[in-house]
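FAQ

Q: What does a record look like?
A: Structure on top, sequence underneath. For example:
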């Protein structure tokens, strides 16, 4: 359902409703044929349904007066009006859920293609390393597997994962560069690996890559989680049952004209607004936190284009790894001397300078600054623009829901003097209430206890608040605990 569709809502003056007297009727012999046909079309039997109008003192929801409805019919139609309105609310919710799922699929496809492209470019970028790459493909591929699993929601600590990668890479590069007659035990290599953070053998590259990769993956994962949580909130709230007071008001709005013999007269739009604002008061209370979450998600979507953009960060991972190894090879003598001081001499002939592979392939080294990722800027801008515009359309969903429902039920704008006002065919005078539970204290159509909010909806408001905070943390590059959501994200195709 498009939230751009705005039903006609007419705000009137604040005079109280003046009860109108029913118009003259044709007497007790007025036929109920039309109502009988309508009633059976709704799936009810004709048992007990009057052939002609009866006196209406028994009516409890509709205005009393000559009618074709019995008490049983009134109850049946009230139940039906509630069921049908709940169906419309669920239908609107399913439409919004589908929109969130479509955004999820769109972003997931974009992100996984960037990730896969970066992984595929590993071989081209690192092949000049020769055996150091070919004999350690599992180490490099393992980094991408870990990053993919993190994005999917697994409980990996990204900082530790990256730190472990650089430690293992240092160990393999040092071992590969050592002379063949030097004995490097597992314990000795473990000591070498521990120097990754203290001696900074790869220069500033691991730290620079860590900052950018963590920010990229934390925001990507939290954005996906935001889409999932939003769709789930819509699903749960759309299934909340309408109150008995709301059902009575809906009966009066929708089906009392049928009992009254004026089935063709549609409800006044302001009248419909008051009924729906009363019925959906709790749902409208989602609005502040809902808008906050949508705004934060738009902010996160925009961050995917902010320098360094998501596509550039992912595309440059192979080149940064290559440049880091190049830096170490260039400074291997200095690093080795420091390692010997800390870890001791690895073997009896350890005085030989371990530069066996340094000269090989030195020409043709590629630096990260020279590495040009695939030209995906156009795709990125289109994707971010699409995400942002679609999210903006969803921003006022909970306050526009009553408008959307009344656009299906109520009279068009020009007919506000000849519409059903709850008593007769005339203008509706009471003012239209505001949105949310607190604003329903004087709602003339739906009786509500504003001190007793719906607890299911309150829980969903809290979920929105938690998700907004997670997204704001992600914007700052701070990892957040998604362990509770890993099951939801793993099936990242549809949310």
């Amino acid at each position: 359902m498009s939230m751009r569709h705005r039903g006609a809502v007419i705000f009137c003056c604040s005079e109280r409703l003046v009860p109108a007297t029913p118009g003259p009727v044709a007497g007790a012999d007025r036929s109920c044929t039309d109502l009988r046909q309508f009633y059976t079309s709704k799936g009810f039997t004709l048992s007990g349904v009057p052939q002609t109008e009866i006196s209406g003192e028994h009516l409890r929801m509709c205005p009393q007066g000559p009618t074709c409805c019995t008490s049983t019919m009134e109850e049946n139609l009230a139940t039906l009006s509630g069921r049908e309105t709940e169906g419309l609310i669920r239908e609107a919710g399913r439409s919004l859920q589908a929109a969130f799922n479509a955004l999820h699929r769109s972003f997931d496809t974009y992100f996984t293609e960037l990730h896969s492209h970066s992984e595929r470019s590993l071989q081209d970028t690192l092949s000049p390393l020769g055996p150091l790459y070919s004999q350690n493909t599992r180490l490099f591929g393992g980094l991408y597997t870990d990053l993919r699993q993190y994005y999917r929601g697994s409980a990996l600590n990204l900082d530790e994962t990256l730190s472990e990668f650089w430690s293992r890479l240092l160990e393999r590069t040092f071992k590969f560069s050592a002379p063949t007659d030097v004995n490097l035990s597992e314990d000795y290599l473990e000591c070498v690996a521990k120097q990754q953070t203290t001696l900074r053998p790869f220069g500033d590259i691991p730290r620079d890559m860590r900052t950018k990769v963590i920010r990229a993956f934390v925001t990507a994962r939290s954005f996906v989680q935001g889409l999932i949580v939003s769709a789930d909130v819509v699903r749960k709230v759309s299934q909340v049952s309408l109150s008995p007071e709301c059902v009575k008001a809906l009966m009066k709005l929708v089906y009392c004209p049928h009992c009254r013999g004026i089935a063709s007269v549609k409800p006044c739009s302001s009248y419909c607004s008051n009924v729906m604002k009363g019925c959906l008061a709790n749902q409208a209370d989602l609005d502040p936190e809902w808008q906050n979450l949508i705004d934060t998600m738009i902010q996160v979507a925009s961050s995917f284009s902010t320098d360094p953009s998501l596509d550039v960060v992912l595309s440059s991972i192979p080149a940064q790894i290559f440049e880091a190894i190049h830096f170490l090879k260039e400074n291997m003598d200095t690093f080795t001397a420091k390692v010997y001081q800390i870890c001791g001499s690895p073997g009896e002939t350890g005085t030989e300078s371990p530069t066996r592979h340094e000269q090989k392939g030195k020409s043709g080294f590629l630096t990260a600054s020279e590495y040009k990722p695939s030209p995906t800027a156009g795709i990125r801008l289109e994707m971010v623009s699409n995400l942002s515009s679609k999210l903006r359309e969803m921003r006022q969903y909970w306050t526009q829901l009553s408008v959307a429902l009344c656009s299906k039920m109520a009279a068009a704008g020009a007919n506000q003097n000849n519409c059903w006002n709850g008593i007769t065919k005339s203008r509706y005078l009471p003012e239209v209430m505001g949105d949310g539970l607190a604003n329903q204290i004087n709602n003339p159509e739906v009786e509500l206890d504003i001190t007793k909010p719906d607890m299911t909806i309150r829980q969903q408001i809290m979920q929105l608040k938690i998700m907004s905070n997670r997204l704001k943390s992600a914007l700052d590059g701070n990892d957040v605990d998604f362990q509770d959501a890993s099951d939801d994200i793993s099936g990242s195709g549809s949310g």
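Q: Is there anything notable about this one?
A: Residues 76-344+380-485 form one domain.
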